[in-house]
Amino acid sequence: MATTTPGPQTNRLGLTLNDYKGAPSTLCAGCGHDAITGQIVRAFYEMGVEPHRVAKLSGIGCSSKTPAYFLNKAHGFNSVHGRMPAIATGTMLANRQLIAIGVSGDGDTASIGMGQFVHLMRRNVPMIYLVENNGVYGLTKGQFSATADIGSTLKTGVANDLPPVDLCALAVQLGASFVARSFSGDPKQLVALLEAAMAHRGTALLDVISPCVTFNNHEGSTKSYTAAKELDMPLHTLGFIPAFSPIEAEIVPGETRVVDMHDGSKVTLKNLSRDYDPTSRAGAMATLMESSGKGEFLTGLIYVNEQQPDFISALNLVDEPLATLPEAKVRPGKDVLDKVMESLR
Amino acid sequence: MAVTISAAGAGGRLGGDPVVNDFSIQVATVNGSGSQSANLVLLRSIFRMGIPVSGKNLFPSNIAGLPTWFTIRVNKHGYIARKAQNELVVAMNPETIVQDEAALMPGAVFIYNSDLKFTPSRADVVAVGVPFGSIVASTCQEAKLRKLVTNMVYVGVLAQLIGIELDEIEAALSKQFKGKQKAVALNFDAIKAGAEWAKGNLSLEVPYRLERMDRTQGKIIIEGNRAAALGCLFAGTTVVAWYPITPSTSLCENLIGYLEEHRLDPETGKATFGAVQAEDELAAAGMVFGAGWAGARAMTATSGPGISLMNEIVGLAYFTELPGVIFDVQRVGPSTGLPTRTQQGDLLALYHASHGDTKHPVLIPATPQEAYEFAYQAFDLSERFQTPVFVMLDLDLGMNSWMADPFPYLDSPLDRGPVVTADALSRRVEAAPEGAKHDVFGRYRDVLGDGIPERTLPGTPHPLAAYFTRGSGHTSEAKYSEKPEDYTWLVDRLARKHETARKHVPSPVEDWRGAEVSIVSYGTSEHAAQEARDLLAEQGISTNYLRVRALPFAQSVKEFVKKSRRVYVIDQNRDGQMHDLLRLEIDPADAPKIRSIRHYDGMSLDAMSIVAPVLEMEKH
Ligand SMILES: Cc1ncc(C[n+]2csc(CCOP(=O)(O)OP(=O)(O)O)c2C)c(N)n1
Ligand code: SF4
Description:
The structure holds 2 protein chains of 2 kinds.
Chain A: H1 32-47, E1 54-58, H2 62-65, E2 75-78, H3 84-94, E3 99-105, H4 106-112, H5 114-123, E4 127-133, E5 136-137, E6 143-144, H6 167-174, E7 178-183, H7 187-199, E8 203-209, H8 225-231, E9 232-234, E10 236-241, E11 256-260, E12 266-271, H9 281-293, E13 297-304, H10 311-314, H11 327-330, H12 334-343
Helix pairs in contact in A: 1-7, 3-5, 4-5, 6-9
Chain B: E1 19-20, E2 22-30, H1 35-48, E3 53-58, E4 67-75, E5 88-91, H2 97-102, E6 109-113, E7 126-130, H3 132-139, H4 143-163, H5 166-176, H6 181-201, E8 208-209, E9 220-223, H7 224-234, E10 239-242, H8 249-262, E11 274-277, H9 281-293, E12 298-302, H10 304-320, E13 324-330, H11 347-351, E14 362-363, H12 368-385, E15 388-394, H13 395-399, E16 401-404, H14 422-431, E17 468-470, H15 484-502, E18 509-511, E19 517-522, H16 525-538, E20 543-548, E21 550-551, H17 555-563, E22 566-571, H18 577-585, E23 594-598, H19 608-619
Parallel strand pairs in B: 1-8, 2-5, 5-6, 6-7, 10-11, 10-12, 12-13, 13-15, 14-15, 19-20, 19-22, 22-23
Antiparallel strand pairs in B: 2-4, 3-4, 9-16, 14-21, 18-20
Helix pairs in contact in B: 1-4, 1-5, 3-4, 3-6, 4-6, 5-6, 7-8, 7-12, 9-10, 16-19
The site of thiamine diphosphate has 18 residues of chain A, from helix 2, helix 4 and strand 5.
C-alpha cells in the first residue's frame, strides 16, 4: 500500500504558515512582542493575503523591530521614533492597493509619536495600527512610558504618579473607525481581532498589552503577564469569519452579535456580561471610562464604524496606485503650459 | 483744493532732461488696505507698455495694520534688482509718512495723501499733496466702496505725471479683476479721476517719464513660487504634503490649484494626485518620503523653521535612500527671525541637513524660469539618485513679481530612476546561472560603481522583490548590520553617489573675460551682481563671473577659482556660507584669493552693496 506523507497545511493561496514568517527574533525570550508576531503571522496566513501586497512599517523601539520577524516576502520599513504614521500615510497615498500594517510601541505612539498618532486616527488612513503596549520603554531599558498606570512601579521601585494615556479612548474620541484592545497572552482573541482589522477599510487600532519580561514583569507592574491575566475583562468572545468562507452555519442567533465588515467578512461577538454594542461611539467611550475606573483591563472589539470613509476614498484618488501611473496620466501637455503662460501675460 | 508743490533743490533733476524708463516707484501703504491690486495694476500697465519692470513687496509679518511698501523698478536696460533709493514715492500711510519723506533721495517726487496731518519739510524734493478723500468722493457715489478704490487714485495721478497709457491701465485692470466688468469700471473711474485731478491741478512736469518700448513683447510676469509649482505640475508630482509657512505657502497653494485644474483623470474625474495639509513639518516630510519609498513623486515646500523640523526624516531618507523633493523658500533668521524678509541663510543647513555624515544635492535657481526648470529636474535627480533633493529659493524670488520669457515645455521623459519591476526580476532569474537565481537583486548594491543602487517598489509581485528599509546600519542586501566594514562601505558608497551627482546637477553659469577680478554669486544675488558688474566696468573694473546653480559644486567651480586672480563671493547671510563652503572645497592654495561680500539686513540685495565693497577692497 502506497503511503503519502501529508504536506504542510496551506491556505487559500496554497501558501504555508512558513511563507508568512520573518527573520528569527532578537528580542528577549518571553517578550510579549514575539507572541504578537506569531499571531500576525497566523492572521495573514489564515486570511490568505498575498505577502507582496503588504507594507509593514514601524517606528523605533523593541516593538518596532517586530516587522522584521514576520512576512519576509513583504517590503518593510523601520522608520524613526514616533513618525511611522506619516510614513504610512505617504505610503498609502502612493499605493492604495497595499495592505499596510504598522507596529508601534507605547513610547513610540503615546509619547514622541502622539501628534502623528492623533492625526492618523482622525484621517482614518487605511491600515492596521498595532501598539505593543508594555507600559515601559524597552529598548532604552525600562523608563516609564505614557501608558504606565498611576501607582505602578518600575523594577527599581519608583512609582508612577502620572495618569496613563488610554490609547483606545483617545482613538474613539478622535473618530477612529476600528478600535480594539487585546493581550499578547490571548492568541485566540488577538487573531480574530487582527483578521477583523484586515477586513476593515480605515484605520484599525489594536492596543495590545504585551508584557516586557525584562523591565516590566514584576509585582507592582500593571502590565505584567500576571496582572494582565488577572485584570483582563473581555467584552465578548470573538469569532471572525472571512468573506471567502461559508458562514451561515457558524452564526448562533440569540446572544451573538454579528458585525458586517466592509469586505463582506463578519465578526461574531458573543457577549459575556452585558449587551455590548461596538457600533455606538458614546457607548464605547462610557464603557472604557467605566472599566478604567474599576482598574479593569477591557479587551475585545471596542468600537467599529464601517460607514466612515477612509482617507484615500475621501481624497477621491484614482483606483490605480499613484506611484506607477504612466507619464501620460500625470504630465499635462504643452497646451496646458501654453494656457498657463497666456494667463500670465 | 490744497496742492503743495515745492521746488526741487540743487540736488534735484528738475529743469534738466527727463529721465526716461529708468527709475523706481515706491508706494507706502497700510497692510490690509487693499493696495496690492493698485500696485499690480501699476506694474502690469508699465509692463504692457513694453518697458522692463520688476515688483517687490516689502510687507510685515502681520495680517493688517502695519506698514507695507511696494516697489516697482522700471529699467530700460532690464536691471531688476532692488535699488536702495526711489525716484517716486507715494505715501499713503500716516505711520510712516515722516520716515518716507526723510528717506527720499534729492530730486525725488513725493506724492502724499494731503488728508493726513502732515506738512512736507524737504526743500530738495518735489512734494505733491493729493486730496485722496475728495477725489474718491467725487467719483464713487457709494460711501462703502470708497475705501476699496482709494488706492487706485494714485495709479491715476502717476499715470498723468509720468505718462502711463490709460488703455494699458484698463487692460491691466481687466486682468486683475478677471474681466469682472463692474469692478473694472469702478476702479477705472477712480484712476481716471486721479489722472483728471493731476491734469487740472498740477502744473509741474516731473522729470521722470515713461515711453513705450518693445522689450516685454511675449513675456510673462510671475512669482518664483508659482514658477516652481508649475515645474512640479509638469514633473508629474503625485503627492504633495505640506504645512503652511511664509514665504513658501504660495508654492504649495499654487501647485494644488494647478493639480485640481489639470490633473483629474478625464475618464473617471478622480484625482491623479494626493495633497495633504499635514499636521506639521515632521509629518509633511514623513509623508513625502513614505510616498517616495512606495514609488510616488512627492514634494513639500517650507522655510527655515520647517527645515529644522524635517531634519530627522531627511537623515533617514538620505541613509535609506528615498526620493523626495523639498523646496526651501528662505526667509531671515535663526528661529522665527524676520519671517517676511529675504536671505540666503540656509545654504549650509540644507547641504548638510541632519546628523552624522550627510550631504544632499541643493539646486539654486535665480530666476522664475530656473525655479520652474530646477523644480522639474529635482524630481529626476531625486529618483535617479534615490535621495532627498533640495530646491533653494528665497522670499525675493518666491513671492515677488518677475518678468520672464514664457517657459519652454520640458519634454525629456521623466527619469524614474533604476526601479526593478517584477518582469525584470523574472527575466534576471531566467538568465541567471543555476545557483545564483536567488541573487538577482540586492537593494543597496553598487551596480555600476557610481554609487547608485537599484530598488523595487513595495507591492511588486515577485518573491525576490521585498527588502527591508531601516535607518540603522545595513548591508548591501539591506540586512541589519553593525559591522564596521559594512558601515564604512555603505557611507563610502553614499559619498560616491554624491560625487556622481556632481556631474548631473545644473552646472554653473560662467562668463570668463580674463579679468583681474572675479565675482561668484548664487540664487537671487544674480540680479544685483550683473548690474554691479556693469557699474564696476564703468569704473574701469572688468570682471569674470560665475553663478553657482547647485551643490555639490561642479568641477568647473574649482577651476574658475584656480584661474582667477581674486574672487569676491557674494552671500546674502552674515557668515558668508558660500564663501566658507567654497574655501573648504577648493585647492587650499587658492584660499587666499577669496574675499567675502555679505549682505544680511533682510532687504534684497542691491548693486551698490556689491560695488562699494569691491571698490573699497580693490584699493588695498
Ligand atoms: C528621536 C529619538 N529619541 C529617542 C530615541 C531613543 N529610543 C529608542 S526606542 C525608545 C522607546 C521605545 O519604547 P516603546 O515604543 O514603548 O517600545 P518598546 O521598546 O517598549 O517595545 C526610545 C526613547 C530615538 N531612537 N529617537
Ligand atoms: S526589553 Fe522588554 S520589550 Fe524589549 S525585547 Fe526585552 S522584553 Fe521585549
